[in-house]
Amino acid sequence: MGFSRENLKGFVLALMSSLFIGASFIIKKKGLKRAAAVSGVRAGVGGYAYLLEPLWWFGMITMVVGEVANFVAYAFAPAVLVTPLGALSIIVSAVLAHFILKEKLHQLGILGCVMCIAGSVIIVIHAPQERPITSVQEIWNMATQTAFLLYVGSAVLLVLVLVFHFAPQCGHTNVLVFTGICSLMGSLSVMSVKALGTSLKLTFEGKNQLIYPETWFFTFIVATCVITQMNYLNKATWWRKWFEAVITDVLVLGHGSHLVLFLVCMALDTFNTAVVSPIYYVMFTTLTILASVIMFKDWDGQSVGSIISEICGFIVVLSGTILLHVTKDFERSSSFRGNYAPLSPTLSTHLYSGNGELLKHEEDELCTEEACLRTQ
């Protein structure tokens, strides 16, 4: 299938987004290390010196640029193409960390990078064409069709059941609860972001969409997502301790919306990152593609072979993502475990602060009598 001009713009923007976001993690980490060296107090244990570090702010600006590029990419290309490409941020971050931060990239991690690239190429080659949209009212008609309303109703109902029934009972023991909430809400958020982005694109092209109430409705949905997130973060007094440690695993997934940041962070704070990130990636990407296929009819007119190829490409990217996260966790664990008995995956995740260094006071707490005897 030919690669349309709109798809090419969306692909380039998604690729730039991955490059900027992946690089921002390394820049911010360098800034955190520099600030810790000057002040003697790291961000992970309550230090605020990084707020005065220009390098850290440069990393934040780089990340914002990447997120804006990701937002605009949805206005040009279908979610089937843009969303899976978010995994490329992991490759950029892993490669830069290997050369700049001297963090060893495991051989299986290299294989994971190759698999992500190969899967992304398959997806790009077989991606559907972006359906031409002339007005926000056309998007509104897509959003109010029976099939998509059924999806929205089902998603909201499942979220309510997970939040009020399963979360209090098994939210901290079953990784699928928080990741399920995040994935369901994230898929709806992406549809709103795509609708708003398309409206703004048409407005900049000379077709003013700001006069239609539908544009402001989609704007309200996106703004509600952001305000909800900020409200949760303001209530969570403990979030900053581990925010820098988990923001990488949240943003590299390329979802284009931050409504679910707090819930993802809760999942990452409770479970092993190497488990949460791949599960969240596959659930979020699958539901986003499903929502886009229902609302925007992305697969209409495509051959069965192309659709199967896209699914296979997504599976390859997923496998590469799992390899990268698993080997990252293995490298971090082996860097301080040595020949001692392994700790639980959850404990190994909590042993690291935002700049990837071992938290000394947590290490002391985890040094049980048996571990101390083995050390002696």
From TrEMBL:
<feature type="transmembrane region" description="Helical">
    <location>
        <begin position="245"/>
        <end position="267"/>
    </location>
</feature>
<feature type="transmembrane region" description="Helical">
    <location>
        <begin position="6"/>
        <end position="27"/>
    </location>
</feature>
<feature type="transmembrane region" description="Helical">
    <location>
        <begin position="71"/>
        <end position="101"/>
    </location>
</feature>
<comment type="similarity">
    <text>Belongs to the NIPA (TC 2.A.7) family.</text>
</comment>
<feature type="transmembrane region" description="Helical">
    <location>
        <begin position="148"/>
        <end position="168"/>
    </location>
</feature>
<comment type="subunit">
    <text>Homodimer.</text>
</comment>
<keyword id="KW-1133">Transmembrane helix</keyword>
<keyword id="KW-0967">Endosome</keyword>
<dbReference type="InterPro" id="IPR037185">
    <property type="entry name" value="EmrE-like"/>
</dbReference>
<feature type="transmembrane region" description="Helical">
    <location>
        <begin position="108"/>
        <end position="128"/>
    </location>
</feature>
<feature type="transmembrane region" description="Helical">
    <location>
        <begin position="216"/>
        <end position="233"/>
    </location>
</feature>
<dbReference type="GO" id="GO:0015095">
    <property type="term" value="F:magnesium ion transmembrane transporter activity"/>
</dbReference>
<feature type="transmembrane region" description="Helical">
    <location>
        <begin position="175"/>
        <end position="196"/>
    </location>
</feature>
<keyword id="KW-1003">Cell membrane</keyword>
<keyword id="KW-0812">Transmembrane</keyword>
<dbReference type="InterPro" id="IPR008521">
    <property type="entry name" value="Mg_trans_NIPA"/>
</dbReference>
<keyword id="KW-0406">Ion transport</keyword>
<keyword id="KW-0813">Transport</keyword>
<dbReference type="GO" id="GO:0005769">
    <property type="term" value="C:early endosome"/>
</dbReference>
<keyword id="KW-0460">Magnesium</keyword>
<feature type="transmembrane region" description="Helical">
    <location>
        <begin position="48"/>
        <end position="65"/>
    </location>
</feature>
<keyword id="KW-0472">Membrane</keyword>
<comment type="function">
    <text>Acts as a Mg(2+) transporter. Can also transport other divalent cations such as Fe(2+), Sr(2+), Ba(2+), Mn(2+) and Co(2+) but to a much less extent than Mg(2+).</text>
</comment>
<dbReference type="GO" id="GO:0005886">
    <property type="term" value="C:plasma membrane"/>
</dbReference>
<feature type="transmembrane region" description="Helical">
    <location>
        <begin position="308"/>
        <end position="327"/>
    </location>
</feature>
<feature type="transmembrane region" description="Helical">
    <location>
        <begin position="279"/>
        <end position="296"/>
    </location>
</feature>
<dbReference type="Pfam" id="PF05653">
    <property type="entry name" value="Mg_trans_NIPA"/>
</dbReference>
<protein>
    <recommendedName>
        <fullName>Probable magnesium transporter</fullName>
    </recommendedName>
</protein>
